[in-house]
Amino acid sequence: MRFAHCEPVNFNGSIRMIHISNLNKTFGSSKGLSHINLHVAPGEMVALIGSSGSGKSTLMRHICGLTAADKGESLVRVDSEIVQKNGFISRDIRRIRAGIGMIFQQFNLVERMSVARNVMLGALARTSLWRSLTGAFHTDDKELALRALSRVGIGEKAWQRTGTLSGGQQQRAAIARALVQRARVLLADEPIASLDPESARNVMQTLRDLNQKDDLTVVVTLHQVDYAMRFCPRTVALKKGEIVYDGPTERLTPQFLAELYGAESDELFAAKTNTQETMPLPGSPVRETSRAA
Known about the structure:
This protein is α/β, with parallel strands linked by helices. It folds into 2 domains: about 1-100 and about 185-275, Rossmann fold; about 105-175, no CATH class. It has helices at about 55-65, 95, 115-120, 130-135, 140-150, 165-180, 195-215, 225-230, 255-260, 265-270, 270-275, and strands spanning about 20-25, 30-40, 45-50, 75-80, 80-85, 90, 100-105, 185-190, 215-220, 235-240, 240-250. It has a 6-stranded mixed beta sheet, sandwiched between helices. GO terms for molecular function: ABC-type phosphonate transporter activity; ATP binding; ATP hydrolysis activity.
């Protein structure tokens, strides 16, 4: 059920970087996603929140074409490219995914490789087979990887073995890899779920910095709403596979979340005691008033 006061919004006009219409996904007898309609404008930073099993990660997998929707009229489009339509993933999905940066909780880095080499893998979509197999990346891509690492604040770690980095540093390396992809959209699925509060804050600040300074469109799934309040002007809340709220994050007070989620709202604020030194209290969000120079 959608709350009457929570109709979907499009903050930046009619131009859409992500367009989703009538998306449904069933797993056996369970409904994973139900009639999802969502639009994200270029340059937005949007949080997807919800308790465990609400459909956040399932929705992200549909946006990047890792999972096909149920058969029937539906559409997922990213940067004017059709990712999937009517339950069928585009035959051109490999090329389309090259423009979509994907960040996951488990980092997806090769720990025995150097950090720089991992980041260079972001260029695979435009690299010939023999260069990919031998690791002979173009000089431009090597330089781009080093710049990307500096951009996310770990340039000095470039030639370290990736396995020696902390979890937060590895996640920032994964973000740098997406920059080497030259992605215009970044999908971050629970990027801070396994991190300590300080590392989580650093990763979220990196995402916000890229959003504000590079105009990168960012969609991030978060298990706790505290981080959405600090870093994301817009929040989409899911419950049992349905969008129950789509609007300004500043409205997500504990009382409002209790209205949306009932007893499950406690789970969304579970991290407050661990993050109270670095994060604002719910109901007192920090909002960005202008883009950084």
